[in-house]
Amino acid sequence: MSAGCQNGSGRDPSSGWPFIQHLPDPVCDMFGWPVLLVHLAKLLDASLAMKQEIVRVFEEIWQRLRTDGDCEQPTLQYAAIVDFEVLLCAAWYKLIPWFIREVAPQYPGMCAMVFVVNYFWAYGMFNIVKRLLPTNVLSRI
Predict the structure, then answer these.
(1) Radius of gyration of the chain measured on its C-alpha atoms
(2) Does 17 score more than 70 pLDDT?
(3) Are 21 and 57 in contact (CB under 8 A)?
(4) Is the whole model's pTM more than 0.70, yes or no?
(5) What is the 3-state secondary structure (H, E, C) of the chain?
(6) Cβ atoms 47, 27 nearer than 8 A
(7) Looking at CB atoms within 10 Å, which of 35, 78, 108, 115 has the fewest?
């Protein structure tokens, strides 16, 4: 197990995050990055409150990556598993471009890898959505 995989707290670091679950230690990807499971089903609206919640969660993730583990220089990256467990909702069409434009640039390189699961029904839709993604994001999917 890599040092970057240990959160050292002994508790669920994702408590209080409504749509992201931090998989517990010793679960990490092949590079030792912590793994986050993103539940898109819980992102049902594109309201200001939801956007503020997304920003709050990403700031907490950033802070945890900076402080967790025993190493002097933390990796500041994670691997994400994005679960398309429900049909795409209209809010996602507003949230995805907003996220790419407003949130992702504040945390460059934080998401090292993205795995997409339960997308079989949305394969055609994903071909449309991926046109909204920048090239550097597409290279990680």
Answers:
(1) 15
(2) yes
(3) no
(4) no
(5) CCHHHCCCCCCCCCCCCCCEEECCCCCECCCCCEEEEEEHHHCCCCCHHHHHHHHHHHHHHHHHHHHCCCCCCCCCCEEEEEECCCCCCHHHHHHHHHHHHHHHHHCCCCEEEEEEECCHHHHHHHHHHHHHCCHHHHCCC
(6) no
(7) 108
